[in-house]
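To whoever is on call:

I kicked off a structure prediction for a single chain this morning and the downstream step that reads the tokens threw a length-mismatch warning. I double-checked the sequence; it's 93 residues and nothing unusual in it as far as I can see. Pasting both halves so you can look.
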Amino acid sequence: MNAPTMERRHLPERRATVREGHTAMSAVDYIAMALLIIGGLNWAMVGLFDVDVVASLFGAGSPASRLVYVLVGISALYSIWTATKMGRHRTPG
């Protein structure tokens, strides 16, 4: 085998690249974070002003608003999975 192929096998996984104690975030992480922020702000509007912005934009119970709610929920599950994975890789010290 040539040398570059051998070297690639020993490179750390991109998503787990650590730079000065911080883990690099992937595009999926940023999308999940954006959806969680949208969901959190929507819930804040519901709680404070009784206004569901997603339902106002797409229609209550419409397929588009249901899709947004499902994507926010999937983002929350993904974030829970990411947080538990990060917790397992953390070394005490």
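Update from on-call: the warning came from a stale cache, not from the record. Cleared it. Sanity check on the structure: The radius of gyration is 19 Å.
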